[in-house]
Write a structure and sequence with these properties.
There is one protein chain. The chain is α+β, with helices and mostly antiparallel strands and 184 residues long. It folds into two domains: 30 residues; 147 residues, Regulatory factor, effector binding domain (Multidrug-efflux Transporter 1 Regulator Bmrr, Chain A), CATH 3.20.80.10. 35% of the residues lie in helices and 29% in strands.
């Protein structure tokens, strides 16, 4: 009986430690460093979406597939999430999901831009925090960790926001930038 308990305890401990190590790898316990800097401007190609934020992946894929069909391969995505999931029912959450067009892609995009929904996110000063992209779970853990941290930071500093926060997905850099534009 003691041997069974010891083995069971060992297995449970191994599972718990593995989970903690995995969460640490994903950045769950990392220290966030807010930085104030100028962001933008960005040419943002998007699709609108209403529903749970966890279901936005196919919307990003749709935008990227349409751009790739035109010979444009943007390396960075962007999402604007308008509603607080703690206050708005999941099926009513609003977002814009898509890609940033920049560099050489801008020339190609000029020829086909009428096929897409496009806005320009103007250059602005903001508070930015980075979170690593390790795998698909990073897109769930990042907001859970970053939004409360940033809300507290902005409140402590007495800052006022200008427009909506957005998430910039820097795929080559393997990180998400959580950007909170500040009022002047």
């Amino acid at each position: 009986m003691k041997k069974i308990l010891a083995v069971t305890a060992g297995v449970v401990l191994t599972i718990v430690l593995s989970g903690v190590i995995f969460l640490a790898y994903l950045g769950m316990f990392s220290t966030l460093e807010p930085v104030e800097r100028v962001m933008g401007p960005y040419t943002f190609v998007y699709e609108e979406f209403a529903g749970p934020y966890r279901d936005t992946g196919p919307v990003f894929d749709k935008v990227n597939a349409a751009l790739e069909k035109e010979g444009i391969q943007p390396p960075r995505g962007l999402g604007i999430y308008y509603d607080d999931p703690a206050k708005v029912p999941a099926d009513k959450l609003r977002s814009k999901c898509g890609s940033i067009i920049e560099g050489e892609n801008l020339k190609k995009f000029e020829k086909v831009k009428e096929k897409f929904k496009v806005i320009v996110i103007e250059k602005s000063r903001g508070v930015v925090v980075e979170f690593p992209i390790k795998n698909a779970l990073s897109y769930m853990i990042g907001p859970m960790k970053c939004y409360p941290f940033m809300a507290k930071y902005i409140q402590e500093k007495g800052y006022k926001l200008k427009g909506n926060a957005y998430e910039l997905y820097d795929i080559p850099g393997a990180k998400t930038l959580y950007v909170f534009p500040l009022a002047d």
